[in-house]
């Protein structure tokens, strides 16, 4: 029975933690292997497709060599959109197969890699051109002044809703409320939250003002 070493890549830590994208890749890999293969140790990479620093991919390749197995990827674009990177993997001597292109050969993999890179470069150029055109019209890029009052209000509402529904924020809010009821100052509450490992929605340490905002959201 053929031995497969699964390799998965997600673009963000959030995707990795939530399973978004990762579970779909796993489903494709397991479905592929059911046809007559045995899955070995799996390797998960959290990295943008634009970057080629892939320690987990290197580990997966080493494992495939060790057991004489084949690297198994759900979709070829989970490897990279950089043609040179895919060519290097192709020429590394490690067998690999993609669930979405099981019959791919050296030629088709090379063509797909070139097309994928061209697509990435085209999207990037269109984005740059659009931003430059907007800047030429006098817009200040990256500033709230470009947003309508309605968009600003909607964005603020979404941020507040995220903060209220975030589990860690809810736990921090409950602890802050209890400490406030016991007579602790905002500074003392901030210290306790930080010591307990809690962080603000943006991943920052708590300060008296951020504690005050947290308590206000609880009472809102």
Q: What's the layout of helices and strands?
A:
Blueprint: E1 2-10, H1 13-18, H2 22-33, E2 37-39, E3 43-46, H3 55-67, E4 70-73, H4 83-90, E5 96-98, H5 106-136, H6 149-165, H7 167-181, H8 186-195, H9 208-219
Helix pairs in contact: 4-5, 7-8, 7-9, 8-9
Compact overview of the structure:
The chain is α/β, with parallel strands linked by helices. The protein folds into 2 domains: 112 residues, Resolvase, N-terminal catalytic domain (Rossmann fold, 3-Layer(aba) Sandwich); 54 residues, no CATH class. 56% of the residues lie in helices and 10% in strands.
Task: Characterise this structure.
With 220 residues, the chain is of the alpha/beta class. It has 2 domains: 2-113, Resolvase, N-terminal catalytic domain (Rossmann fold, 3-Layer(aba) Sandwich), CATH 3.40.50.1390; 166-219, no CATH class. The chain has 9 helices and 5 strands, in the order βααββαβαβααααα. Strand 4 (70-73), helix 4 and strand 5 (96-98) form a beta-alpha-beta unit. The longest helix is centred in the middle third of the chain and has 31 residues, at 106-136. The N and C termini lie far apart (61 Å).
